[in-house]
Amino acid sequence: MKINWIRELFSFSKRERTGIVSLLLIIFILIVIGKLIPRFILSDKPDFSKWEAEVNYYLANTKKQVSEEKPLHRVVFNPNEVDSACLADMGVPSRVRHNWLKYIEKGGRFREKEGVKKIFGMTPNLFEQLDSFMVIPKAGITEVKSVRNVFGVKSGPEVKRDTNFRQTYSKSKKNYVGVLELNSADSVHLLEIPGIGPVFASRIIRYRNLLGGYFSVSQLREVYGMREENFAAAAQYLTADASSLKTFNINFSTVKELGRHPYVGFITARKIFNLRDKIGKFLSPRDLSAVVASDSLKRLIPYVKFTQ
Question: CA triplet 242, 243, 247: central angle to 5 degrees?
Answer without folding.
Answer: 85
